Amino acid sequence: MSTPHKTAATAVPLHPLLAGRWSPRGLDPQHELTQHQLTALLEAARWAPSASNTQPWRFAVALRGTEEHAAVLDALVGFNRAWAHAASALVVAAAETHTPEGAERRWAVYDTGQAVAHLSVQAEVEGLAVHQMGGFDSERIAALLPEGVTPLVVLAIGRRDDTAELPEPLAGREAAARDRLPLEALQLPLGVPASV
Fold it and tell me: In terms of Cα–Cα distance, which of 103, 93, 127 is closest to 52?
């Protein structure tokens, strides 16, 4: 399989790291993350903005070849297990959605999403790919984590392999052109009250 060029078609030019980022499933099963790469990804996430600087994100890293990687992989839905086994690391992104005193952290999920976004851009800098997955058994993943955090997404991280053999329909999705809603569809009108 050969993957087509997937740079985003945008209304105005974007930074190449943003325009070129996409979520491949074809990953090199021989690639190993260096400690430098892993630290850079986690540092990028660490410095993401958060409400009142609460930093609610937590990351559990499972490197390929470890029992932890196998446990996370086993908790993925079959559709994701079919390709994620090749990831150099499976990383569970979780959020502390409540304070130690039990108060709700309303923005914890949003903030964790920002941290993952920062991590994914740093991955591009490092020549790595990140594919975020929501298809997993949340109870099984939660059982692998300390109490007090809510698993939100599993990240498959590795080096893209354009020659990776994927079963259908995954191969078709990998080769398909990137697609997004038009910019106009994402913009909402604001209803200003008549008294303003």
Answer: 103
Residue 172 in any domain: the answer is no
Determine, yes or no, domain membership for 174.
Answer: no
pTM attached to this predicted model: 0.93
Using 50, 70 and 90 to split pLDDT, how confident is the model at 1? very low
User: What's the CATH code of the domain at 117?
Assistant: 3.40.109.10
The verdict on whether omega for the bond into residue 169 sits within 30 degrees of 0, i.e. cis, is yes
As a whole number, the mean pLDDT across the chain is 95
* Residue 193, pLDDT score: 87
- Beta strands 89-95 and 57-63 are antiparallel
Intra-chain end-to-end CA distance of the chain, in Å: 58
Residues with Cβ within 8 Å of residue 158, at least 6 apart in sequence: 27, 28, 31, 33, 86, 87, 88, 89, 128, 129
Examine residue 168 and state whether it is found in any structural domain, yes or no.
no
- Which residue segment(s) compose the domain that 97 sits in? 44-161
